[in-house]
Amino acid sequence: MSLVYDIAGNQIDGARDYQEDAFLITQLGDKNRAGALVIVADGMGGHAAGNVASNMAVQAFNKFFTSHYRDYPIHEVLRQATHEANKAIADTIAETAALKGMGCTLVAAYFDPEGKMWWVSVGDSHLYLLRKGELEKKNADHSYGGFLDRMAEAGKPVEPEEGFARNMLMSALTGEEIPDIDCPEEPLELQPGDRVILASDGLDTLSHGKLIYLSQDVEGAEAYMQALLDAVEEAAMPRQDNTTVVVVDVESSEKAVAPAPAEEPMELEEAAGTEITQPRQKAATQPPPTEPPPVEGGNTALLIGVAVVVVLLVLGGLGYFLFAGKGSGPVTTVAEAPAPQPAAEAPPPTEAPSPAEAPETPAPQPEPAETVPAPAPAPEAAARPEPEAAPAVTQAPEVAPAKAPATTAKVFRDPLRDGGKGPEMVWIPAGTFMMGSPDTLPYYDERPQHKVSVSRIAVSSKEITIEEYQRFAKATGRAFKAPPFLDPKTYPMAFVTWEDAFYYAKWLSKQTGKKYRLPSEAEWEYAARGGTDSLYWWGLKPGKGHAHCMGCGSPFEPRKPAPVGSFDPNPFGLYDTAGNLLEWVQDCWHPDYKGAPDDGSVWEGGDCSRRVARGGSFSSAPPSLRSAKRDSYPGNRRYDNIGIRLVREP
Questions:
Q1: Which domains does the chain carry?
Q2: What is the pTM (predicted TM-score) of this model?
C-alpha cells in the first residue's frame, strides 16, 4: 500500500539559555512517490561544542544517506551514515582541540513510500510508535539505566555501581569508536493511522501516559507536536533540558492533501553569524545527490543551526531543513556558537638529531626523529582540549582523601654532571593492581579491566617545573619559551610535545647516569592510584579542594595551572596526579585494553601519531580526573595543559 507522511518538527530551549539539539527533515523521491529522512541529534560538551556536534552530525549523516540510499540496503546505509557523522566529529576535534569532549546522541528514521520504516540510533534519544492508543519505544536505550534493564531482562542482573546515575550515556557520537549502535536489518511495516515520534531526551519530562493522552482527538502532526512541546513547557521543570520533537503521521494516499505549488528554492548561507530569513511554508527543494561515495578524509560542512516552526507535508514537496535554535517565527538567526579556534600550533619541521642527542631506541617504541620546535605560543593562543562532559551522578557519601605519612614518601634528587640537581623523586613499591574500569561503567576505552604487576620504580613527586625543563633546553639548544607571568621555580612546564618530554628524559639520563624515561601507561595509573581502587585516589566523588580543575573548588586561577604541590599528595607521596596538567606517557594510543600487557611495560604498536596523556588538567571537568581516565593527543603538538612526569629505574 502506498502511504504518505504528514511531518512536523520544532524544539524549545527549556530552562537553558542555549540550544544544543539539531534536527533535519529531507524529502526523498518525487512528489508522487515521496519518502522522508528524519534525524534528531542531541549535542553535549558545552554551549558551543554541543551545538557544533549536533549540527555537524545531522549534516554528515544526511549527506551520506541521500547519496547512497538508492544503491545499497537501507540498514547498511543508515549504519554507515552514523559512522560518517561520527567521523565528521572526529575530524573536527583533530583540527580544533578546543572542541575535544563534544559529541551527540542521534536517532534517524527513513520512511519509504511503501510504508516501511528503518531506523538507527545511538544514545538515549527516542523513537516511539503510537498505534491504536498504545505507545511502544522502538529504539534501544544506551543509557546506564537501559544497560541495567537489559541485563536484568536477560537474566543477568548487574549491581548498580555506586555513584553512577541511570541517565549516564554508554554510547554516543564522540569521534571515538561507537560502543553500541541500534540498527535493525528488517523495517517496521507502518499502517494508516500510525503516529511516529522522534525526540531528544528532554521529552522524558512527560510520562508515556501523557504522550498517549495528548494524542487523543488531536488531528495532524503539527497539532500533536505543538501539544507535546506545550506540555513540556507547562511542566516548568527547574532543570528542563532542550527538547526537540518531530511527529510523523502516517496516512493512506487516498486521504493525502494535494501538494502546494512549488516555489523557488531559497539559498541558505552557511557562515556563522549570518541571518537567515525563511518563510513559514517555503522549502528549498533538494535535487537527488549525484556525488560518488565519500572517501576517507573528505570534507565535512559545518553549519551552525537554524530554527523555525515548520509544518512539513512530504507529498507537498518538503525540502532540506536544519533546526538548532528556538523556533518562534518566520525569521531566524544562526545560533551564537563561536567559530572553532585553531587546534594547536603546527608541528615543527623534523631535523636530523644532533650527535649530543642521537636517538636511542626507547623500549618498546620506535624512537622519534629529533626535532627543533618553533617557539611555543602564548597561553591565550595555545590549544586547550574541551573538558569532558560530566555525567550526572547520584549523591554518594564523601570519602576523605587518604594522606601518605611523611615517612612513606622520602624525596631524593640525583646530582647533574653540569651542576645542580634533577627533579624530586620518590620510590614507589612494586605491586599489583586492577587497571581500567569494570564493565558496569560506561567507559569502553578503559576495558577490559585487567590485573597488572608493576616493578619498583621512582617517580617524580611533582610535575616537572619550568625551571627544571629550562635547564635542559639551554643545555641542548632546544627551542624553548617559558609561559609568561608564571614563576619558573614553582609552576609546571606546559607547551611541550611528547618528543620534548622524551628527550628531556634522555638528557636527564646522560646527566645523572641513571635511566630516566616517560612512564608506561600502566605505571602511571598504578602510581596515580597510590594503592587505592576508588574512582579518585581520595574516594568515590571528586568533591572540593582535592585538585585544580574546572569545578573542583580550586582557589587558583581557572585558566592556568596552579603551582606544583598545591594540594595533598596521594598515598605514594605524588602531587597533582589528578588535575593541574595532563601528563605524557610513553605508550602510543590503543582504543581499549584488549591485548594489553600485564607486566606494567609499555604497550607496543597502536596509533603512534597519537600519544596517551593521563590525569586531567586545570581545564578538565571533574570526571576527567578519575584515575582510570584516558586521553590521547598528537604527539608533535604543544598544548597549554599537558606537561611532564618522569620515571627513574632502580
A1: 3-333 (3.60.40.10), 412-650 (3.90.1580.10)
A2: 0.49
